[in-house]
Design a protein that fits this description.
Elements lengths: L1 H24 L1 H9 L8 H4 L5 H10 L4 E7 L7 E3 L5 E2 L5 H13 L8 E3 H5 L8 H13 L8 E3 H11 L2 H11 L4 H8 L10 H7 L2 H4 L3 H8 L4 H17 L1 H14 L5 H7 L5 E2 L1 H12 L6 H11 L1 H5 L3 H4 E11 L2 E10 L5 E8 L4 H9 L2 H11 L1 H22 L1
Antiparallel strand pairs: 1-2, 1-9, 3-6, 4-5, 7-8, 8-9
Helix pairs in contact: 4-23, 5-9, 5-18, 7-8, 11-14, 14-15, 22-23
């Protein structure tokens, strides 16, 4: 009996030590989810209903305030789908499309070289601890594995932009944004004739702007303060914040110390709601730009071809793509409460080319985790190009919504 009790005691003691070690190692993650336990129930009723993409189209039809779709078929304009396409929504990292366009424009004009090198150490200077850090690490690992880094940890600009399209590395986006230069963006907006689209801003500045911990303000106070600023004033304040993070040593150290332990200091819901301050566009205007890109008429033929090549990473990196597409390029986004994507694709079955902009905005937290973990928005967009059943379901959602709007007007 004594030996049995000793064995049980040793077993329970070991189990307690292992459990404590696991809890200690993952303490920040544990406390984060505990603090957001109420948010983790938000939208849970949609999870059971959306284990198929058919269920996702039902969600889209029931949540027009949260979703925009513009799917344009070049050869058959009557087959296009437009759903809440004029609503301005946060771009997230689909704004990197404009960073890619601007970089390509400067390359074609000879102001930048595709072969010039970027220091990865300098890229990392823009990384906020705890904010999409894994994407930055994955991006670096991919560059290593593809032999895109030299012995000084430098990467050529063209390869860096390819990584940006694939991994949406926020630090890399910021470094290229500064390489292009703050003074270039208004000129570039005019060159593209944009009407409903904001130009990109440094992600470090945007995230620090919505951080209650860094700002020492409540999330609602931050929104009330920032939302009433004129566009140019807001842009200048975000750019200043991003510049401080890299160049003001005291501010940088304080920011890193805080965000390493507390991330941004906001809840999941506050972070999601804060994204409303990020640069916005409409699905309609974005899909229009993509159509010009596929026609090789976006600024110039050479620029259009270069950007399409950067966006074609799924053809090499995603299994099964070549089964359904003869050509495909995309930029996807996935951040708290937001799932976006822009893509172009030529169906292997019909030969038709489709360009798309799809924005899921302010998604309920539990439902967002469900969609995010299953890459549902990526699958949805791809099937919306080649799957007749998926296309027909979305056309029905579009038709039902148009009918409801007509009834309201009458």
């Amino acid at each position: 009996m004594t030996r049995v009790l000793k064995f049980i005691g040793a077993f329970l003691g070991t189990a307690a030590i292992v459990f404590s070690a696991i809890l200690f190692i993952n303490w920040n993650a544990f406390t984060t989810f505990f603090d957001n336990r109420d948010a983790m129930a938000e939208g849970s009723e949609w999870v059971e209903q959306t284990y198929s993409l058919s269920g996702l189209t039902h969600y889209i039809g029931q949540n027009p305030d949260r979703v925009s779709v513009a799917s344009l078929v070049a050869e058959h304009p009557d087959s296009s789908i437009n759903y809440m396409e004029q609503v301005r929504r946060p771009m997230g990292t689909t704004a990197n499309f404009f960073i890619m366009l601007a970089a390509a424009d400067l390359i074609e004009s000879g102001k930048l070289s595709p072969d010039q090198t970027i220091s990865w150490e300098e890229v990392t200077q823009h990384q906020i601890p705890g904010v999409n850090r894994s994407e930055h690490e994955q991006s670096y690992s991919a560059a290593q594995n593809r032999d895109w880094l030299n012995n000084r940890d430098e990467i050529e600009l063209s390869d860096a932009v390819k990584l940006l399209a694939e991994y949406n590395d926020l630090a890399l986006a910021d470094h290229i944004w500064w390489l292009i230069g703050p003074q270039q963006w208004q000129l570039f907006s005019e060159k593209l004739s944009l009407e409903n689209t904001d130009l990109p801003l440094p992600f470090s500045g945007l995230y620090l702007t919505i951080s209650p911990g860094i700002r020492e303000m409540e999330a609602d106070e931050i929104y009330n303060l920032e939302s009433v600023k004129e566009d140019e004033e807001f842009r200048e304040s975000v750019i200043k914040m991003a510049d401080q993070f890299v160049n003001d040593q005291t501010f940088r150290e304080n920011t890193i110390n805080y965000t390493e332990e507390n991330r941004l200091g906001n809840t999941f819901i506050e972070e999601r709601n804060g994204l409303i301050l990020f640069p916005k566009t409409t699905a309609s205007e974005m899909s229009g730009l993509l159509r010009r890109l596929t026609e090789n008429t976006l600024i110039s033929e050479a620029l259009s071809r270069r950007v399409k090549d950067w966006m074609r990473w799924p053809m090499d990196r995603q299994s099964g793509i070549s089964r359904d597409f003869s050509d495909y390029g995309a930029i996807y986004d996935n951040r708290m409460g937001l799932l976006n994507g822009i893509d172009f694709g030529t169906s292997m079955y019909t030969g038709d080319t489709t360009v798309q902009a799809v924005f899921f905005d302010r998604v309920q937290i539990a439902f967002w985790f469900h969609m995010s973990s299953n890459h549902m928005h990526q699958d949805f967009q791809q099937r919306l190009i080649f799957d007749p059943a998926m296309i027909e379901q979305m056309k029905q959602v579009e038709s039902d919504h148009a009918g409801e709007q007509a009834e309201l007007q009458n």
